[in-house]
Design the sequence.
């Protein structure tokens, strides 16, 4: 069974050692997804699997047969920007840009988690289904994505703005 | 990474048959195993993918909750019954790792995480009895700030890294197993070993034995429960000390209590001495402090982690005081 990546079907690699990250970058030339630490500590390799954000560096590609992967290249139609990408530009959500694809894919997954009531470490009342994305909630939920440039304030502003506009 | 074969198990029988072969390992989300394989600390020759086995979370007639071992950590933390009936479990899970890792990691895999001791990971530069039996331990005389204060041995002072398991230990969780010799169940607190002379063996699982589910017994007092984790940064770090606790009061006294600690030992540490001390005692900070001291009387800190003894006591008192809160 093939793997669906940004709408196209791809065969799983014959070598089971190939990570999902290396499949994307080295086999398919989808270099938007970044290799930061390659050990699950930085979040630069974050992609969406059936809508859930995961770390592609810790994922063996063979495990994803029959699943649908979305990378930064697949968030918007070719040549267009996803509104969250636009918000990152407008709010200075990056300097060097290396963590940005992971930040953006992570934020898309994060907003979906919050909308269905997944709690976080800073959630006070666990019975609340509709999580209010306060500053603390947003930062905690994005804590798996590091930015060595320290563009966090811009990242938070970009996600907050996109979230508010999407809600309207 | 060494070469290995990959197979997807269709059912438990299939998994156990494939997983009982010498050198085979079960693969869940891969968040720990793939990393260790890349470091060549783990070198399985066959991976058996068990993520297609049961991930269902079922409420049963006796009030228990049965969680399939392939359930993702996020699925457990967001489950309505877990949030309402076992809040300490939801809170423990979201205190661990990052959201991306919790979306990948399975319940079974979480139980079988290996230690995050830096000497265990440092294959080229350090001795480690857990990685290479008989080699010696460089942590005991090394930088051992994060290491164990309870139940350690002259062979190993590593800690178990899981947050989820600390809550499961406090909740009297039962682990369901299946293997070539049949099914069995055991309390979660019996699954992990203390290091003794064989720190290379983390659990009592037999070769090829598979965790199929984790059962949470109906435990009404767990509705008043929580998890507190103390770590070096506010998020995405392993515990220095963590406490999972549930408290039931009868007037001003402790009627019943469950408490377990993380970051202190080679396994999630169920505080049975504290629990025995507190049952029937006044529910006040003096009792909580004495109960904590009772539990930690056996603590044997190393050169750099003596702070953990006091930190554990204070965290216990803080958590129990919080749980007693409304009625004190």
Sequence:
């Amino acid at each position: 069974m093939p793997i669906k990546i940004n709408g196209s079907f791809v065969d799983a690699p014959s070598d089971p050692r190939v990570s999902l990250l290396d499949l994307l970058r080295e086999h398919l030339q989808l270099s938007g997804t970044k290799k930061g630490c390659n050990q699950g500590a930085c979040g630069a390799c974050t992609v969406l699997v059936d809508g859930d954000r995961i770390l592609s560096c810790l994922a063996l590609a063979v495990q994803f047969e029959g699943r649908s992967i979305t990378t930064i290249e697949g968030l918007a139609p070719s040549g267009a920007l996803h509104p969250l990408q636009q918000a990152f530009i407008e709010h200075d959500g990056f300097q060097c840009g290396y963590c940005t694809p992971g930040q953006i894919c992570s934020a898309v997954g994060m907003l979906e988690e919050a909308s269905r009531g997944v709690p976080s470490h800073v959630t006070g009342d666990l019975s609340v289904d509709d999580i209010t994305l306060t500053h603390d909630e947003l930062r905690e939920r994005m804590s798996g994505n590091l930015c060595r440039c320290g563009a966090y304030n811009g990242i938070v502003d970009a996600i907050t703005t996109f979230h508010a506009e999407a809600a309207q | 990474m060494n070469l290995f074969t990959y197979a997807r198990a269709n059912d438990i029988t299939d998994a156990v048959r494939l997983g009982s072969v010498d050198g085979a390992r079960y693969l869940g989300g891969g968040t720990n195993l793939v990393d260790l394989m890349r470091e060549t600390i783990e070198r399985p020759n066959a991976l058996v993918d068990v993520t297609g086995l049961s991930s269902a979370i079922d409420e049963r007639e006796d009030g228990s909750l049965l969680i399939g071992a392939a359930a993702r950590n996020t699925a457990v933390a967001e489950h309505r019954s877990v949030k309402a009936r076992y809040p300490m479990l939801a809170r423990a899970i979201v205190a661990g790792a990052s959201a991306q890792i919790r979306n990948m990691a399975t319940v079974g895999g979480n139980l079988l995480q290996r230690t995050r001791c830096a000497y265990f990971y440092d294959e080229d530069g350090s001795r480690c009895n857990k990685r290479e039996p008989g080699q010696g331990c460089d942590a005991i005389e090394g930088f051992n700030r994060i290491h164990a204060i309870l139940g350690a041995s002259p062979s190993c002072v590593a800690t178990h890294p899981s947050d989820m398991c600390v809550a499961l230990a406090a909740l009297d969780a039962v682990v369901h197993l299946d293997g070539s010799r049949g099914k069995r169940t055991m309390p979660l607190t019996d699954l992990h070993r203390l290091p003794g002379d064989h720190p290379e063996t983390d659990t009592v699982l037999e070769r090829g034995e598979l965790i199929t589910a984790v059962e949470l017994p109906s435990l009404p007092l767990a509705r008043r429960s929580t998890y507190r984790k103390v770590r070096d940064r506010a998020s995405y770090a392993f515990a220095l000390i963590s406490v999972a606790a549930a408290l039931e009061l009868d007037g001003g006294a402790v009627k019943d209590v469950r408490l377990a600690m993380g970051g202190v030992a080679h396994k999630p540490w169920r505080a049975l001495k504290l629990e025995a001390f507190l049952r029937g005692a006044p529910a006040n900070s003096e009792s909580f402090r004495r109960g904590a001291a009772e539990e930690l009387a056996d603590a044997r800190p190393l050169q750099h982690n003596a702070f953990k003894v006091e930190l554990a006591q204070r965290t216990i008192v803080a958590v129990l005081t919080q749980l007693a809160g409304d009625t004190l």
Observations:
- The interface with chain B takes residues 16-17, 19, 38-40, 43, 46, 52-55, 58-60, 62-63, 106, 109-110, 113, 116-121, 123, 126-127, 140-141, 143-145 of chain A (CB under 8 Å).
- The helical segments of chain A are 20-27, 83-90, 100-115, 135-141, 152-167.
- The longest strand of chain A covers residues 46-49.
